[in-house]
Amino acid sequence: MEPGNPSSQCRSEVPTDQTLARFTGYPPPLVYVGGKAIDVGQVQSAIIHHEAAVLEINQEIEQLLAVARRLEYQKSRHMEEMRRCKGLITLARRIPPEILVYIFELCVDWGFPRTPISVSQVCSEWRAAAVCAATLWSHVLVSANNRNPYCRALLWLNRAQSAPLHVTVQLNGDTSHVSGALGVLLERRGQWRTLTIQSYGLAEVDGVLTVCKGAFPDLRSITVQVEQDSHSGRFFSDVNNDEDGVFLMGLRDSFSPAPLCETMAFKAVIFPPLQSLPLNLVNLSISLLPSSVNLRRLHIASLVGLVDQLRSLQSLAIILPFGENYEIIVPPQPITRATAPVLLRLNLTGPLHLFTLLHHLETPALMRLQLRSSLEPEISPHEPTSASLRECIGRSTPPLELLELHDVDLTEECFVFCFDSLPTLQEVRLHESDISDQVVQRLGTGACPRLRRLDLRWCGRVRGDALVSMVQHRSQSGDLQSLELITVINCTFIKDENVLDLARFTRCSLMIRQDDDYCQSWECCSNERYRRRLQLRKLHDLEMDHRHNIIF
């Protein structure tokens, strides 16, 4: 207490018993608890002692916490240095630049055009590899959804230098937002290798094609993807309608000259006008997208005209959407056949009546024929398809090497005729296309002497014994090519014992192919449970030398 300071006196503590005893001269009082006398002064002295001890402990705790914080800081510094040192020797930084660039290019090819920007943020080595790889920046994306497509295109072009350019234009109604980027790209049109136009409507595609004038000496392929037609406010459903030919004319007129542009892919709800397709096309793919139109028409006569017009075609794919009901207009009277003198690959995917196109084609060079139904399989064989296939093969006698039938059932007479007429056939793929034991036996007695691969899936008639007998006869015959691979998946009458017997003569696969298998997207032949069960229960019954012949 400060002398002479009243406020100090007001803030003084309440006097204890010892203080009162000192001023009054009386000893501290005693209290009785449970009949026992307790000295209040001693208790209060003990409290004061413990309070002082607690205060001292708190001070020591504060000192220790300060030491702990200092140690934590030192630990974090060491951890940071450890991460930095590990980063110097990590595998990502030790990969050779050429391998890094190859991996980055794969990412770009798989549809990630922003790869060079993304990988540049990983580390300095990746950034250096990305910046120096001109081919990595050659995939230029011009999108109407980007904030500044002009600056983006300029950056990509500067980094691409003189590498061939793969240009993708994504439109969303208004093309004015990308006009500047298209302009700077057209200044380098001599480097264009591929062009992809993705749009919601046909009018925007026409707008882009209109400005693509001049020579494109290195352009190889054009892809057009249109989700819906907004060109005239309606869907085009009839490929034989002449008034529909007012759109997409730039496909033939704009890129002139483009002597190397021989590949075109068209994905839309409509067929492109026949007069819009360049005459020098070698590879053409037309995929129709699902539509809200209940019934769409497709004229066989127009498809015949398409084949007859494009005489340089080597590969043709016409793919209609799965499950949609198309009205295939078959000409009531005979029409002039179309000759495709150099057509090597033909893929038709659609309703069964689409395959009647074969009746009107002459394909003397055809090597690969794939017929895939887009509807549920029918119970009985489809007579028009069988007749058309027989007519095409009998008239053209093509050097066919691959025949694939997916959910297409032929008559037994058609199977026999095809196998007897195709001595060059090397591979047959049948998916839910019932083939009888008698037809299979013909493969073991002289039909298809060069057959190397047989793929049977969901075939409900052929028996395993007939299949084993055929494979055995071919393996023992000197005039017939032995089967190198036979695939059996979900075939009703092919038992586990038949699979083991097949493995004694050739390789037997129970899996779909890994590269170009049509069933991968549908997941209709993923019989993993059966494969695992057979591997656990039956594999030990097979001789050790033949176990590797079964592909699980």
UniProtKB/TrEMBL annotation:
Coiled coil: 54-81
InterPro entries noted in UniProt: F-box-like_dom_sf, F-box_dom, Leu-rich_rpt_Cys-con_subtyp, LRR_dom_sf
Highest taxon of source: Eukaryota
Gene3D superfamilies (UniProt xref): 1.20.1280.50, Ribonuclease Inhibitor
A Pfam match: F-box-like
Residue intervals of the F-box domain: 94-141
Keyword entries, A-Z: Coiled coil
Record's keyword annotation contains Coiled coil: yes
Record's protein name: F-box domain-containing protein
